[in-house]
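LOG
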Amino acid sequence: MANKIQIKRGLKANLPLLDVGEPAFTTDTKEFFIGDGISNINFAKQSDLEITNSQVLDLSFKLAGGTANAITLSMQPLTDGYSKTFIASANNAGAATKINGKPLYKPNTTIAPNLISGKAYTVWYNQAGDCFFIKASAEGDAIAANVLAGKKFSNDNDTGLVGTMPNNSQVIITPGISNKFINKGYHDGTGYVQGDSELVSANIRAGINIFGVDGKPSVVDTADATAGAADIVLNKTAYVNGNKVTGQATIASLGGAHYITGPISPSQTPVQLIHPNGGTSNYYLITVSTGFMPMGLLLLDDRGTYITHYVNSINYFNDPYWSSGGNRGNIIELSRNPQVYVNSTQCVIPSLNYHKTFYYHIWGN
């Protein structure tokens, strides 16, 4: 008969303190112990090993079964906080999804997460809600177009995503006659819309508003004006079709005549004027400013009595005080008396009387 090696055995309640390296087996609880001289060390039971093996298998990443929105997974009995990691086998497009018949939500919401085929996800069971929550790894609703090109980011859907937003850096816009589009993307904050110091009211036509600046009322469109220099009064200016025009027209060129009238007193200092017969007399000169070339002149006294007159065709002043039966002794010729004259600036008129107020009537071009 072969030799047998037997170890100490018996009921667990009767297990003594084992020596160092001494083994023992409890026949009632089916446990195995070994001593270290201080305590008995309990080795795992078969059932414990089976549970441990099951738990180890549960930790491995398994490809999910079922469909994109009705996932099936092998799991341990559900307890509050129990977690499971799996690999999604299909995209769920963010639609309502269940795992083994229980709803799957984003953390602390009732919103389904977005699952992408081939990605690993960890979920945990919530006993109070009888549902699964996906483990939060990253949150956010940014997409690639929201993040600067080349920069990485994460959102509700995934981690390690790369942005695609263009980097426009500094953008300078010059205004024009039509809208200018602002390119989509990142701007570094140093860009601007160009201004112009010439954008002032004086440079804008009346009735026009450019970027909030109203045109000056006196700035008008002269393109339809038809006047020329000959139509504008002498030395006055006007704008025609954008050009400044200095007038050349006179009253005569426009078919009209000047006329002035008013009271005036003669000088108190006499001057000697020569008559056609060679004689001389003292006269008192009356000076009237005109501003035009007289064609004729009439002088009356304060009672309306005729004193003298002048017309440019005869070139002399008539003097009724020297009438002598129609002879020429009653005139003062301008050619012989330079003290009296008529020009475009003024008229100097002779009078024998210095203490009266006279009234003149002068007309001309």
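LOG (cont.) second protein
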Amino acid sequence: MKVALFFSALLVASRADAENVSETIKNALADVSNGTVNKIFKKLLEELKGVIKHGSKFFGIPSMDPYETGPVNTTIKSEDIRANLSVLNIGIFGLSNYEVTKAEIKGISIISIGFDWPELKGNISSYDISHGRVMDFVNIFGNGDAVYKFKNLTFISDIFLQFKNKEASVKYMKSEVFLGGLEFYTDGLYDDKMISEKMSYVISEIGPTAIEMNQKELTDAINNRLINILNKFLRKFTVDELFDSVTGILPGIKRTIREEYDTVRDTIVSIIS
């Protein structure tokens, strides 16, 4: 229910062609943009913490806190870092402990979201780094385990939707990631514990700047992952089914807000059906 309403809120403002929209739809969309659905949208994003923490059997969504990536094999090719990297698993703890900083539906097809995590902890199991080079200045290699802590992690994104045959999908996303601080430790670099400890300190210090300088590579990877997850979910439903799911009563949302939202929804549905 909550997950379906989330996508319903995203879809309400996105079912009309921008160049061929009646005044009735424009007025309805204006109501949406003015905050009717945005209030529900933000409330829902906050309630999705429970889905992230415990999963949803109905929608086939597993628990994602803690989140584990499983094996990762990649080649890092950024301006500052080059390396071959393999990892048995990356664990992330605390994904459900976020604050919603933005929940907006803009115009007819752009959804803006923002989250802040005061702290995220994690571990890296059995990494192996080879042929590494940092800032074209120093080689880096090693293998072992690591632990890390992100401080004040911010993620903001604009999600662009598209529609075909009564089905919705995410066309693309524009995202940004900011990190306030990083604590990183490993004793496996250079096969030398003392040098590894010093490098761990350096990585901790340059981490936030490295994320800022490598935004495109990082956000491209995040966007591709999220688009795949969202579209896999959206393929399970038609737009009508997502709209119908909104008719249920949601705990924690005032009835007056629901009635106002239902009026907007019914107006749009009657015109596009």
